[in-house]
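Handover notes (outgoing to incoming on-call)

Open items:
1. Homoserine acetyltransferase: sequence verified, structure written out, both below. Nothing else pending on this one.
2. Nothing else urgent.
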Amino acid sequence: MNVGKAASRTLRALSKAPARTHVSLSVRAASQCAAPGSSSSSHDRPHFPCVDAHAVRESRIISSRSVSSTPAASSSSGPEPPYARPNPTSYNVYHHTRPLPLVYTDPLPSFDIAYETWGTLSPSKDNVILLHTGLSASSHAASTELNPAEGWWEKFIGPGKALDTNQFFIICTNVLGGCYGSTGPSSLDPSTGEPYATRFPILSIFDMVRAQFCLLDHLGIDRLYASVGSSMGAMQSLAAGWLHPERVGKVVSISGTARSSPSAIAMRFAQRAVLMADPNWKNGFYYDGLPPHAGMKLARQIATITYRSGPEWDMRFGRKFRPLPESEPQRSDKPRTPALCPDFLIETYLDHQGEEFCLKYDANSLIYISKAMDLFDLTAPALSELRLDPPAPRSGPPPLPPSLSAHPSSPAHAQYHHLLSHSKSHPPPANPPLHLPDLAAGLRPLSNTPTLILGVQSDILFPVEQQREVADALRITGNQMVSYYELGGVWGHDTFLLDVQNVGGAIRGFLS
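Homoserine acetyltransferase structure tokens:
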């Protein structure tokens, strides 16, 4: 794939938007943030609006609660009101009444799973794609009649798109542990009538996938045409194929990993650490008070650094400063006075991202789900430690796409399976990771499952080497149906959200 030119075109289009659009309230006030020695009197204390913004936000939260105490109050800034249990008017909810076994703790007595669908389920229910989300996403992957707002994968779902609703029936859920309709730490514990908070059980990626398959059982769907996911969703997609080789026809893993790396664990730990240090967190029991919004803002800023890449920011922001308002006086005999609040454009961007996110997502959900990502490891020793018995690989041939399934005796059937065996290759690693044999042993249940692996060369959260090792490990198992692509471009981990042409094209070709 020639992704360089497409990446440059899209980047130029993105760069046309003025960077000042990312400036938040705290940054717009940064002109009042005097540098040391610049105050009118040596005895004046400097003013830091970016710090004061936390108190302003807190006052706004208190004020909004006093105006309306209704949990389902509407919000125009996100799919659900922050820290509320919204009425499920724009998505479906499946309530599972039986206990769900968990990897690390006792079973969860019951749970809800929020989900949305697109396309039409075939009479034989053989055209289903389960779409897995990243850490903080809701089930709203694309617009629906009930919720016409654009979803997080809007450009990839629909007629003729990567997930073609003319052919497939797509299901997307909010993961177990989330806060957008599925059971998580903010949900009421049936035994106490109060939010679980940090009494909620520790989760694994496998637990999230098992909850999704409970939904599939409820819907009468025995087999998936494909399991598709990006980022944490890629972990879920691999886990779905591992847990149920006979029920999952194909696996798509985009910008994911089969084994969380120490660097990714460190980044997510730093996010949890600043969040848990917020005095409002209160060991997770904050639901009757103020949420840990300052910690959430800082955690999101750390996360944002891992989602994009240095080359993109260099092209997009460079070392430019924010525009100075006319009200800010400057000395003619001195260069521009630097501010300690966000001053560089890249700082204003991070500030904006943190501000936008800090009240949209539940802090405990972030803690629990990010920990589940850290724990994910498909190497054989790790799976053995979890007491997970590997199932046998898929015994039958992979499923035919809907365009061919109506004519199973067609010569195109054999040709289709032949095409699946051809993969984009990469040079064998000069120094393969020491854990590669263990990963290959762990991935044996996927040895007969067609798998698409997409990696991004500028990704620092899930480096492309991790995508290569998944492809290498699957090939070591004997899987002859591994398709592997490395994408260029400068968008880093978020490429799966932005590069419609190449990401969408690879998925469409693999599924069709």
